[in-house]
C-alpha cells in the first residue's frame, strides 16, 4: 500500500520522537520538518537526510506533497496551527493536550468534522500494550463493574511555569481512563485539591476525585515534589482487580481474583445486616509485550485515514480530557467543591467563521 506523506510541525521536546517514529513506520513517508528555528529542525531530522526543513508554516502548507500534519508545539499554538492545517485539507495529529481550552478543542474538532478529515490526539499511553490489555479485560467483562480506580503519578519532576501539575501530569491519567472505560471517561463531577508549598506560583501537588454514574469513584494523585517515582493504577472491579505498575517491567500488570461479596438485596436495612464474605483467589501476571507506543500510535493514525474511521484517540477523546481538566481548574479555584463535568459532544461553536471554508 502506498505510504501516506506527513510533515511534523515543531522540533522541540516532543517533535523528535514523532519524527523518529514517522521515519521508521512502513505506513508513512516523512517529507518535511517545520520549526521557526531552522537549526533545531535540522538537528531533529538528522544529518544526510532527504527530509526537507521548513521555517514557515504557510510555505509548508502550500506544498502539494503532504497528506497529514503532526503538531508538536506548545498548547497555546495548537488552535491556530490545527485550523490552518485542516483548512488546507490535511489530516491532523496533535500532541496532548488537544488545545489550551475546551472551547478551542471544540473548534478544532468541528473543523475536522466539517471537512471529513481525520483528527487525532497523541495520547501516547493509550497505545502501550498494557493499557490495551487493561481495556480488553474491562471490555470483555473479566473485571466486571468498575467500583474504584486509584491512579498515582508522582516524581521529583520538572516544575512547569505555564501550567500547574494537574494540567501537566493528569492528562496522561485521564486519557488512559478514557481509553479503558467503555464509552470513554464520563465522570459526573470532579473535586480538585492542590498545594504550592514551595511558592512556585502554581499547584505542585494535586488530587482529583471523580464519582462515576454506576456509583464507583476515581481518584488521581499527581505530584512534582515526590522523592520517589511512582506510576501505578489500581482498578477494583466486581469480578477481578487489576494493579498496573509501570515501573515494574517484569510484571507490569497483575490480575487478582479477590474482592468483597455482599448478599444481594434491594432493601437497605437488610443490606446492612447482610453477610459479607471475602474472595481470596489467585493472582495472575499476564505476559505483556514490549513495544514502543508511538509506533502503534502513528500506525493507528494511518489506519484511521485509510479506513475513513475515527482513530482510537480522536478529537472527542481529546475534548473529554480537556472537559475534565477545565472543570478541575474551576474546582481548584473554588477550594475543592464538586463541579459538574459537562457532557462531551460535538456541537455548534461560538464563532463558526473560524472553522468555515
List the helices and strands and how they pair.
Elements: E1 4-9, H1 15-24, E2 28-34, H2 38-45, E3 52-54, H3 57-61, E4 68-71, H4 78-87, E5 91-95, H5 102-115, E6 119-122, H6 129-139, E7 146-156, H7 165-180, E8 189-195, E9 205-211, E10 217-223, E11 225-237, E12 241-245, E13 253-262, H8 268-272, E14 276-284, H9 293-307, H10 315-333, E15 339-340
Parallel strand pairs: 1-2, 1-4, 2-3, 4-5, 5-6, 7-10
Antiparallel strand pairs: 7-11, 8-9, 8-15, 9-10, 11-12, 12-13, 13-14
Helix pairs in contact: 4-5, 5-10, 7-10
Notes on the structure:
Helices cover about 30% and strands about 30% of the residues. It has helices at about 15-25, 40-45, 55-60, 80-85, 100-115, 130-140, 165-180, 270, 295-305, 315-335; strands at about 5-10, 30-35, 50-55, 70, 90-95, 120, 145-155, 190-195, 205-210, 215-225, 225-235, 240-245, 255-260, 275-285, 340. It has a nine-stranded mixed sheet. Strands 3-2-1-4-5-6 form a six-stranded parallel sheet, sandwiched between helices. By secondary structure, the chain is an alpha/beta fold. The two termini are about 30 Å apart. Helix 5 (about 100-115) packs antiparallel against helix 10 and helix 7 packs across helix 10 (about 315-335).
Amino acid at each position: 500500500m502506498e505510504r501516506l506523506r506527513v510533515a511534523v510541525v515543531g522540533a522541540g521536546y516532543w517533535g523528535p520522537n514523532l519524527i523518529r517514529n514517522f521515519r521508521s513506520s512502513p505506513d508513512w513517508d516523512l517529507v518535511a520538518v517545520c520549526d521557526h528555528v531552522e537549526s533545531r529542525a535540522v538537528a531533529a531530522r538528522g544529518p544526510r537526510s532527504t527530509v526537507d526543513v521548513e521555517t514557515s508554516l504557510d510555505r509548508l502548507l502550500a506544498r502539494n506533497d503532504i497528506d497529514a500534519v503532526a503538531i508538536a508545539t506548545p498548547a497555546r499554538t495548537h488552535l491556530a496551527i490545527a485550523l490552518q492545517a485542516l483548512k488546507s485539507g490535511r489530516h491532523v495529529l496533535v500532541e496532548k493536550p488537544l488545545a489550551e481550552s475546551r472551547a478551542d478543542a471544540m473548534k478544532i474538532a468541528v473543523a475536522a468534522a466539517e471537512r471529513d478529515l481525520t483528527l487525532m490526539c497523541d495520547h501516547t499511553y493509550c497505545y502501550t500494550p498494557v493499557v490495551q490489555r487493561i481495556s480488553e479485560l474491562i471490555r470483555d467483562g473479566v473485571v466486571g463493574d468498575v467500583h474504584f480506580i486509584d491512579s498515582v503519578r508522582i516524581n521529583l519532576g520538572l516544575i512547569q511555569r505555564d501550567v500547574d501539575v494537574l494540567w501537566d501530569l493528569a492528562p496522561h491519567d485521564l486519557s488512559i481512563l478514557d481509553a479503558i472505560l467503555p464509552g470513554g471517561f464520563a465522570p459526573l463531577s470532579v473535586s480538585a485539591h492542590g498545594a504550592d508549598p514551595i511558592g512556585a506560583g502554581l499547584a505542585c501537588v494535586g488530587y482529583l476525585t471523580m464519582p462515576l454514574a454506576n456509583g464507583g469513584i476515581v481518584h488521581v494523585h499527581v505530584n512534582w515534589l515526590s522523592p520517589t517515582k511512582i506510576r501505578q493504577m489500581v482498578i477494583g472491579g466486581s469480578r477481578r482487580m487489576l494493579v498496573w505498575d509501570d515501573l515494574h517491567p517484569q510484571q507490569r500488570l497483575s490480575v487478582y481474583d479477590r474482592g468483597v461479596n455482599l448478599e444481594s438485596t434491594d432493601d437497605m436495612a437488610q443490606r446492612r445486616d447482610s453477610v459479607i464474605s471475602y474472595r481470596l483467589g489467585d493472582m495472575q501476571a499476564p505476559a505483556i509485550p514490549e513495544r514502543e507506543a508511538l509506533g502503534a500510535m502513528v500506525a493507528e493514525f494511518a489506519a484511521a485515514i485509510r479506513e475513513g474511521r475515527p482513530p482510537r484517540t480522536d478529537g472527542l477523546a481529546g475534548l473529554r480530557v480537556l472537559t475534565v481538566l477545565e472543570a478541575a481548574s474551576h474546582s481548584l479555584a473554588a477550594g475543592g467543591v464538586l463541579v459538574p463535568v459537562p457532557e462531551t459532544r460535538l456541537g455548534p461553536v461560538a464563532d463558526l467563521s473560524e472553522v468555515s471554508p
